[in-house]
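Q: I have two molecules that I believe assemble together. Could you output C-alpha cells for the complex as a whole instead of separate predictions?
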Amino acid sequence: MVIKAKKKNLFLKGVGVSPGIAMGKIFILDSGKSNLDSCPIKLIDESSVSSEIDRFYAAVEESKKQLLRIKERVAPIGGGKEHTYILDAYLMMLDDEFIVDKTARIIKAKMINAEWALNKTLYKLQNILEKSKDEYLRERKRDINYIKNHILRNLTGKEQKDVSQMDEDSIMVAHDISPAETAQMVRSKVMGFANDMGGKTSHTAIMAKSLKIPAVLGLERITQLANMGDFIIINGTTGEVILNPNKKTIKEYQAKANEYKYFEKTLFKYSKLPAETKDGFRIEICANIELIEEIPSVLEYGSEGIGLYRTEFLYLNRASLPTEEEHFDAYREVLEKIAPYSATIRTLDIGGDKFLSNLNLAEEMNPALGLRAIRFCLKEIEIFKVQLRAILRASSYGKLRILFPMISGIEEIRRVKEILNEVKNELSKGGVAFDGDVEIGIMIEIPAAVAIADILAREVDFFSIGTNDLIQYSLAIDRVNEHVNYLYNPLHPAVLRLIKSVAEAAHRAGITIAMCGEMAGDPLYIPILLGFGLNELSMDPHSIPRVKKIIRSTTIKESRELLENIMKLATTDEIEDYIQTELAKQFPDEFPIANLSVH
Amino acid sequence: MIHFAKMSAMESRTFVIKNKFGIHTRPAVLLAKTAIKFDSDILFVKNDLEIDGKSVMGILLLTAERGSSITVRAKGEDAMAAVKALEELFDTKFGEE
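A: Yes, here they are, computed for all two components at once.
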C-alpha cells in the first residue's frame, strides 16, 4: 500500500447522513484491492489443466453461493427486488461467458494458474471500460474488481481483508460500500462511516441511520487523503470530518459528543416507557415506515407497531410492476419483524403516471386532484387486486390492518370492500390461508371525508388522519409552491375544527381514530391531539422519544383545557402564541420560549 | 460470438441512450435479464463492437454513455417480441432520470 503524507488537523466537508459524533482509528475498506500479491503466477503442465479449470469453476460456484446468501439477507430492503440489482449483476457476471468461459480458455491456452488467468481476463475487460469517455461508466470497473476479488478469495482460500477483520472502535473509510459489504457489517465494531461516494438516500445512509451509526458520505477524496490507522473525527450531524485532529480539536469534539450523547440518552430513556399521561390516559405510539430496514430502529425508539407502511416504494424506480410474490415477501417480513405488534399497510398512494409509462394516461393539470391513490386502484382493478391478494396472504403471518388512501365518498369504500371480498373469495376457493377478520380503515385527508365521517365510520374499523394532505386540500394550498406555502399551518382554526369533527365522529361510532401525518410527531401539537382524544399517533421513528416525554409530563385534563381555550381563538397566530406560551410554562426545557422552532 | 450469416430475417432497431448515467450496471442487468427471457439470438452492436445481449459483462463493455446509440438485432421466432421488450426499457430510460 502506498503511504500518503500524513495530513494534520485537516477539515473536510461531506454530507451528514446519520447524526452523532464518532472518533477513532481509520479502517480503510479497499474494495478494489486484489489479493494477487500473495499468489505468484504459476505455469502448470498439461496434465493438470483440467483440474485447474475444475478448481476455477468450483471457486466460481462457491462465489455464487456466497452472493446468493448475501442476496437473501439484503433482498428485503423495501421488498423490491430492484435494490438487489447489483447482486444480480454480480451473479450474472459469474455466469458470463466473458468472464468464466474466457478464463477457462486462458488456463488451457496459456497453461497458467486460475488466479492469473482470471486476472488476465478481467484486466482486458477493465481496459475496455477504462477507455470510455464517460466517467460514470469508467467507474464500472469497480464491479469487475469486486467479482475478481470474490473469486480470488475462494481460489486462494484466503480471507480478503474485509469488514469482519476490523479492530474494535474503527471508523470505516471507503470509496463506497457495496450492499454485499454492508450486509456483512458487524455493528459493534463500526463506530462510523466516512465515504467518498453516496448521499442521503444511498444504501449506506439508510443502513447507518437504522443502526444509529454516525455517517458522513460524499467526501469525494477521503480515501485518497487517509491512511490505515489514522485518527479521524466524524460529525454525522453536520457533515464535518477532521483527519488527524490536534489535541484541541479532539477535546472540542469530545465535549460535543458528550453533549449529544447526554441529549440522546435523556430523551432515549423515554422510548421504553409507555405513552401515558400523568392521569392515566394511554395513547398508542406507532411509526411510519417506507423500508423494512427501518424496523429495528423503529422498535428501539419505542414504537408500538407500524401505523403507516407506505407501499409506494415497491412500485417506484422500476420498469415493471411488482409481482404478488414481491408484495407478499415484503409484507410478510414486515409483520414478522414487528411482531408482536401490528402493522398498518396502506395501499398504493400515488398516481399511475409516477410508475407506469405504458399506461398512456393523460398528463394532468393538477395531479393532487387527479387520478391517484384509490381512484387509480379502482380504475386499474387488476393492479389493485395483486396488492390486496398479497396483503391478505401475509395476514396469516402476523397482525395487520389495511389502510385505503384518498377516500372521498361512501361509494369508494363500498367498492373497495367489494373488491376485497372478491379477492377473499378467490383465496378461499384456492385454499389459501388468510385472516378473515382483517381490519380495514381509511385515510381521512379529503375535507369531504371529514364532512361525512359519521357515515364513513359505519363502513370501517378505523380512521387515520393524514394531516399533510388534509391541510393542503382544506386550505387550498400547494405546499411546494413557495408563494403560498406560508399558509400551510396545522394550527389553522379550520384544520383544528376538521380534526375535532373527525375525532368526535369516530368516538360516537366507537371506532379507532389515528393520525399519521407530520402533525402527529411534532411535540408542539401533542397536547392538542391528546385533547382531541386520538387513540393512536404514528410518526417518524426518531420523534417517538420526545413525543412520549411530552405525553408523560402532562395530563389529559390539562390538555383538554388547553384545547378548549385554543378552540375559542380566531386566528392561527393567536393559537400559535397561546400554545407556545402555555407549553413554555409546562415544559420549560422542551420549549424554551426563545428558540421555538417547529418547522 | 453469434453469427447471422445463414439467417434470413431478423428484427433490428437502433436506440439512443437517454438516461443520465448511460448503460451502467443496473440498466445492463435489466437489458440482459429481459434478453434472456427470449429464445432468439440477440446481438447488441455499438460502433465496431458486437456483443451477446444476454451477457451483462458484454453490455457493460459497450460503454454506452448518454447520447450514444445501440443497435439491437434479434433473430428467432420471438425476435419481434424481444426487440419490443427491449425497446420499452430503452424508451423508459430504464426507469431512471
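A: One point stands out. Chain A is about 45% helix and 15% strand.
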